Amino acid sequence: MSKGTVVVGLSGGVDSSVSAYLLKQQGYEVIGLFMKNWEDDDDSEYCSSRQDFIDATAVADLIGIDIEAVNFAKEYKERVFADFLREYSAGRTPNPDVLCNAEIKFRAFLDHAMEMGADWIATGHYARVRRTENGTELLRGVDPGKDQSYFLHRLTQEQISRVLFPVGGLYKRDVRRIASEIGLPNAAKKDSTGICFIGERPFREFLNRYLPTHPGPIRTPDGRVVGKHIGLSFYTLGQRKGIGVGGMHDSTGEPWFVAKKDLQSNTLWICQGHDHPWLLSNRITAVHPSWIAGKAPDLSSSYTVKTRYRQADGGCQIVEATPLLFTLESDSPQWAATPGQSAVIYSGDVCLGGGFIDRVE
Questions:
Q1: Which superfamily does 221-274 belong to?
Q2: Domain 278-360: top CATH class
C-alpha cells in the first residue's frame, strides 16, 4: 500500500537521486521534478542546466519514475536575484541559497507539487524533520560536514510540515555508496558548489556585469591609504584574497583581511591578522527574523548561533526579540560576522530559525 505521493526535486545530483530511490523503496508513489531556475548564460561552461536535466532523466529512467520539468526562472529573478543585487548594492553580503529555499524550492516548488496532487515534497538536503504534537521541528543533518539546516532556517511550519529529507540521516559517503550499488549514472558526479547563476566562475567578474564599479581608498587601522578598491560591493568582511594589497608586507608577516566597509566615505578598511579586534564581535543584531520553530526563542535559555555556514556554532543568549529583530550576545567572539548573512539559532540539534545580520559590536 502506497504511503502517498511525493514529488522529489531532482537536480541531476547524487543526493536528490538517492532521495528518490529511497522513497520509492519505502513505498511512496514518487514523481521527479526538475527545476530550471536560471536562464541568463545558461549554456556557458559555468552553469548549464541541460546536462543536469539529462542526468536527472537518466536517474528517473533507472529508478522507474516519471519526471517533469518546470521553469521557475521568472520567480527566481523576481524573488531571489533582485534581492541579491539590492543587498550587494547596499554593501551587504547576502546568501541567495537561504532565499532560494524559502521562495523557490519550498514555496514555488511546493505550490506546484500540491497542484500535481502530491502529499509531500522531498529534496536531497542534509537535514531532518521531526513531527511532534506541537508542530514539525527542523534538525541538523547527521553528517556534520554536510548539514544544510542553516540554509533552511527561513522555512515556515506550513512548509516544513510537508517536507521529507531522505538523506538527512545519512553520511555523504553512504549516499555515494548507495548510488554506486544501484548503478546510478551520476554516482560519482561532482557536488555542485555555490549557486547556479555564479557556479565556478570568478565571482567578481559575474557581479561586475550587474553592478557598477565605484573605486575608493583602502585604509589600514592607522588611517594610511594603501591602495584603491573597485567598489565596496565587490568585497566581503573576512575576505583575505583579492584585496589588492598582496605585496604589502611588514615585520609581522600576518595576512590582511577586509574588516569594515564605510559607505559614506566609500572606504574599505582592512586589518592585519586573523584575530584582529575589528574582525571579532560579541553582540549581533539581526533583522527580519523567521522562526521555523513557530515562535521566538525564550530569553531565559541558552542557545548556539551559527553566523556562517562553514563556521562552528558558538554559545549565545538572546537578549532582545521583537517581530522586527533580535539581538544576541555570544559566549565567545564571532569571527567576521557579516551584514546580510544569516545568524541562525539552534537548541542542540534543533534549528529554531534566525535573521539577517544587520549590526555587529
A1: Adenine nucleotide alpha hydrolases-like domains (2.30.30.280)
A2: mainly beta
Catalytic pick among 100, 271, 316, 351: 100
DSSP state of 284: E
For the stretch 198-201, contacts whose Cβ atoms lie closer than 8 Å and that sit 24 or more positions apart, written own/partner, are: 198/46, 198/47, 199/46, 199/47, 200/46, 201/44, 201/46, 201/47
Give pTM, 2 decimals.
0.92
pLDDT tens across 62-112, in order? 999 999 999 888 888 888 888 989 999 888 998 888 988 888 889 999 999
In this structure, which amino acid lies at residue 160? I
Give the pLDDT of residue 41.
55
CA distances from 358 to 129, 165, 281 (A): 29, 31, 13
Domain 5-181 grouped into CATH 3.40.30.10:
no
Question: Is 196 a known active-site residue?
Answer: yes
Question: Which one from 47, 196, 271, 316 is the annotated catalytic residue?
Answer: 196
**316 has catalytic annotation:** no
Supply the mean pLDDT for the chain.
90
